[in-house]
Structures are given as C-alpha cells and as structure tokens.
Amino acid sequence: MKLKLLFSFTILTFVFTTVNAQNLIRCASTEYQQQQVNLNPGLQQIFDQEDLTTAAFVANHQDGFTPQVICTIPVVFHVLYSSSAQNISNTRLTDQIAVLNKDFRKLNTDANLIPSVWQSIAADCEIQFCLAQRDPNGIATTGIERIQTSTTAWGLNSDMKFASSGGANAWNRSKYLNIWVCNLSGGILGFAMSPGGPASTDGVVISYQYVGVVGASAPFNKGRTATHEIGHWLNMDHIWGDDGNACTGSDFVNDTPNQAGENYGCPSFPHTDNCTPAAPGVMTMNYMDYTDDACMYMFTSGQKTRMWATLNGTRSSIKTSNGCTPSTVGISEELMQNMFSINPTPTDGAFTLNFGSGSTANFDVSIYNILGEVIFQQHYSALNENELHLNLDGNTAGIYLIEVRTTNGRTVKKIILN
Ligand SMILES: [Zn+2]
Fold first, then answer.
1. Cα of 65 to ligand 1 centre, how many Å?
2. How far away, in angstroms, is 232 Cα from ligand 1 center?
3. Mean pLDDT of the chain, nearest integer
4. Residue 198: burial class (beta carbons within 10 Å; 0-12, 13-18, 19+)
5. Boundaries of CATH 2.60.40.3080 in the chain?
6. CATH 2.120.10.30 applies to domain 5-320
7. CATH class, 333-417 region
C-alpha cells in the first residue's frame, strides 16, 4: 500500500475500525509500514521509487501482462507458539498453500460468484506457491519451522522476525516468501511488508487463528487473510486507495472501481457508495477489500499487472529460486537405502521402484524435473506387489528426482533419463 502521509490521521482512525464485535482488525499493513517509515525515514523514498517503477511497468502494459512462465514462490512458515493451540497443524499450513494456489490462479471454486460484469477482468495471476523443499543452506526442509517461545502474544512490530527478540529470523527473501504465524495481540489478523523494505523484516505476518481453513476462526476461515497480505507483499494497495472515505485516493489500478472506504461483512451485489454511486458499484468481492473470507474471490487483470511489475522488478529473483526443488542433502542415508531402490538408472524411459520388504501402503510418489517442477504425482493406497512401474517417456533427457512420501517421512532419489 502507499504511505500517504497526507492522510495519516485518517489512516490511523480507520485502520483500527473494528470489523465486528470482537474488535478484530482485518489488516494492519498500512499502520505497520507507517511505523517502519517513522523508525527509518529513508524507507519512504524507497517505497516511492518502488511505486514509480511499478507505474512505469503498468504504463507499458496497459492491455495487461502475460508472463512466459508461471512464477512459483517458495514459502517458509515460521510458526511461533507458546501453547498447543498456537502450534497449528501441518494440515492448516498445507491447506493455506492450497488456497493461495487457487486464489492466485483463479481456480477458487467461488470464482463462479464473480458478477458477470467483471468476469472478463477477473485474472488468473499466474502465480503459485510451494512449501520450501530446501532451506537457505540447501538442506531438505518441510518449509515449516516451529519455534516454541515464551511470548504469549505479539504486538504490531517486528519482534517476531528476529531470533534475538524471541522470534525467527527471515530466510533469504530473494528466494523465499517468509510467513510468520503467531498470536497477534489487539485482534490484528495480519500485516505485510511491501517490496523495498529491509530484507530482515520482509514478508507477511498472520495471526494463527486465521491461517488455513478447517480449524481457522470464522468468518476469516477460508485462508484469504494470506491472499490479501501477499497481495500487499506484491505491492498491491487496498482497493479503496487508503484515502479514508474520500474519492481522491487510488489503488493505481485502472480496472477497479473508485471506492470510498473499506467494506466489511458480506455486501450483496451491486453495492454502491458515494465514489461509485451507480451499478455495478464497487468491487466488494476483491481480495484487497476488507470483506469476510467467503465474500472475497477475485483479483483483476490490472492488479495482476501490478503484481508482475514487482515480479519483474524488485522481487524478480524469486522467479528463479530453487527453493521448491527437493534436496537430498540432510536426508537419512539409511532411510534412503532402505525405503526403495530404482532400476534401472540411467533409464531409456521405463523404470521400477522396488520397495523390498518395506510397506507399500499409503504413500505418494512425485517426480520433479531439475527445475523443481512436478511432472508426475500420484497417491497409492496399496500395491499388489512390492514394485511400482513408472515411465519417463516423452520427457527430455536429464536428471529427475523421485520422491516417495509416507506419514513417516520422505525419501528422494535421482534417476537419469537417457
Ligand atoms: Zn491490507
């Protein structure tokens, strides 16, 4: 979001407007970044430059932007917990990734609710996410870091981002999107750092109650807090332009209607306000508004262009990150020897995984190319024999990684295709 100092009084007033009787704050990104600028006034100039660069990219792509390659962003969750409730399950986190992969690809099932007048501008942003498969040292990881802490609740500051203050240090932001999951005080759902901020505080913070789907707290239990905050991380503004209730501010996106202030709850369509008083009104179902999770389900083509300005600019290095590529370093050699063998390698195409006397029930097989892209994925509930026959026919020659995942862990082995 833009830091509009002119409106700072208004911002402070409305950011803390409550979203319901529990005094929840839908998003504290504007306030957080204002605070960071106050601590480091030089940041304002960096954010301003970021916006100029973005505006130039948008001006050069007025008909929209289509990337040649979908961007896959490696994510690391830093889960900070002082109670078992705060130490949310792996399922909550993998569900969250699944939500992001739907929302940023317009694969969300509620996209069918988008009003017909906006269906043509609703965007597949061509951005997807993976749980990091290797850490900054190249060691195999689940992409989930769990840290027990004596801090029961975290304030609106950067303490959770530093081990020295009881939190977790950021992983290299040129390769990872850092998401801190912790108990935010004051009813704050989440906040983000826009591109251009310091590396040590770059990323998104989400209070644990609002991560994932099953087990998350209604009405913010469809994973859209992360969708919204990652929108900020990719330099998107609030859809109403952070101008209080005026009509003068802008989100610098051409295809979103001018909007007075934020919307809460679940407005019925069409919803008009004093900036767009005629139907179809304002776009309350946009992820960058403040509506309930079930009532936001689209980004626009203009917002996609803005995100890709960042992915072709300040955050371009994330496009070539190997964070999604599985690593064999750090995996138990004994486990690797025992779990399965591959025959033959090199192969001309067909090959066999032999599980020996090991269990052949309830496991997943994934095959990755050297870019870390999944080229095959299958769940097996049971095999009739201790072998699994697979084939790489039709793929380019080179190295592939075969991953077998069970509830006990995962094993990755290489195979060479001639
Ligand atoms: Zn926000």
1. 23
2. 7
3. 91
4. middle
5. 333-417
6. no
7. mainly beta
